[in-house]
Amino acid sequence: MTPFTTLSGIAAPLLADNIDTDAIIPSREIKNTGRTGLAEGMFAPWRYTQGREPNPDFVLNQPAYAGAKILAGGSNFGCGSSREHAVWALAEYGIRCVIAPSFAPIFAANCIRNGLLPLVLPRDGVEAVAGHMVAIDLAAQTLTCEGVTHSFPIEEEARDMLLEGLDVIDLTLKSRSAIAAWTRADRAERPWIYL
Fold first, then answer.
1. What's the angle, vertex CA 94, arms to CA 67 and CA 124, rounded to 5?
2. How many CA atoms lie within 13 A of 106 on its CB side?
3. What distance in Å separates the CA atoms of residue 152 and residue 63, rounded to the nearest whole number?
4. What strands lie across the sheet with 148-151, from one edge to the other?
5. Contact, 118 vs 100, CB < 8 A?
6. pLDDT tens digits along 150-191
7. Distance between CA 176 and CA 187 in Å, rounded?
8. Of 76, 74, 70, the residue nearest 97 (C-alpha)
9. 123 partner at 20 to 30 Å CA-CA among 11, 91, 153, 183?
């Protein structure tokens, strides 16, 4: 995965609460089981008209937010299901960070595993940065907007995974030498286990 260190850009405002995974990527838009081909269907009911033309009222179709890599969302972003396709759709589209007052836990975990930062700010902080240019420094755990710097929480392991571009397998492989040492010691202590 591409490491996430710093990111600057406009935070496209999509401030509704409870944006669920079926809104992010409707099941009818999932044409395969892979991680690709999903960006086209991202937010499809909001993003397109009945004739599948771009809806000019949808935030990401507006020129000011075209190509945005940051979304500012409402509370409980990514609720509804464990559908990892929702994160894959966002990532394929180019979204690297969603800023919200809270996230559905499984969605937030899927974000970390796929290199996308789920950045938690209080509601008034999200509303203050929505629609503005922001600069995010993950190592410092800060977001700066219009001269105001906000600190944000993130678990150490999640921060390290994003900073180093690691998925869960990569994270385990970082401990390869410790695992090998433990296995050698265990093999000496309990050789019958390895027969």
1. 75
2. 10
3. 29
4. 117-120, 97-100, 70-73, 6-14, 133-137, 142-145, 148-151
5. yes
6. 999 999 999 999 999 998 899 899 899 999 999 999 999 999
7. 16
8. 70
9. 91
According to DSSP, residue 131 is labeled: T
* Beta-strand runs (E) in 32-189: 70-73, 97-100, 117-120, 133-137, 142-145, 148-151
Q: Which amino acid is at 90?
A: L
Greatest alpha-carbon pair distance for the chain in Å reads 68
- Cα–Cα–Cα angle for 91, 49, 130, nearest 5°? 50
Tens-place pLDDT, residues 29-48: 998 888 899 999 999 999 99
Distances in whole angstroms, Cα of residue 176 to Cα of each of 101, 138, 161, 182: 37, 26, 16, 10
Coil, strand or helix: which one is 106?
helix
Whether the Cβ atoms of residue 35 and residue 53 lie closer than 8 Å to each other: no
Number of Cα atoms under 13 Å in the Cβ half of residue 53: 3
